[in-house]
């Protein structure tokens, strides 16, 4: 990890590919209540298979839908029971422990308003807070901070704009000042990620696309790292095996938590983890998805331990741009879908429950006969956390943070 210690000051925002933070000063109303809340947003880029993460084992159509790929309570390994209907992927014992202790909750069959299946557009809607992609150059987290400042609830003195390393994610772009932090060692981009970046640049920056394409060709001719199974445990394969992925997730998340935990550090932040685009050989019970969820579970443990005594005032929201198809495809993976899950953890949560208006898994109940139908608007979850945990006003949430969402009421009761 690298950080230039002479640059950051109090109340600055720390952001980067490993972690992204916002102003250290929280709303005065929260401080007046004797609270000092923290909020960390984790974006899983690539679209998470919510059914592979949290299985509806009580649904009579579940096993028929995925056959021997369905997580079940008596499987090998067995899914971890959450309640009488849902069970957690066995790769996530830390999340299961937090859930049983009332410090984690899961929102199932959730999605943003986006109903197409483009990663770039889906992440734009997820991070901008608008209903359509390309509507704004700012993110909902940045606008929430700006609204608090304009209402006299944030002291912005000493803050300044700073960018180091990778491009600032949309969720925090805007008028509120930002600064960046980037791990010294980043995981190399997978072939899929490189190809999707190439496609993006071909539409937005043809000259950069030409350079990137030439670099990719040179790397392939030179036998450069980039071949092999990215989820392999063999440390000689590149991209790095899952052991390095686990280490990276834990280190980035742990560093984020350490900055949030500092008495004079930031109080709000976000970070992203890539790799969730499981089109081929997904492997919910043993394989790519299982390994990624295990790495995320390790990140949860790192956050909890590094938050220390302020864990009790912490909420972490884990979100993704959309879900994946309900059925397994011909290459034993899942394609771009709609409904998925959001994970919530933290000592400030009123957890120990799966929140779901379950849509069912019969063909007629699926969205467009292929996806888990979303029944909970993810904006309701985020608005509930911002309102009840950070004390952002409801009108500000509807008008400025998530414009056009007046009919999407903040979900209550998420925090204790």
Automatic annotation (TrEMBL):
<protein>
    <recommendedName>
        <fullName>DUF1501 domain-containing protein</fullName>
    </recommendedName>
</protein>
<dbReference type="Pfam" id="PF07394">
    <property type="entry name" value="DUF1501"/>
</dbReference>
<dbReference type="InterPro" id="IPR010869">
    <property type="entry name" value="DUF1501"/>
</dbReference>
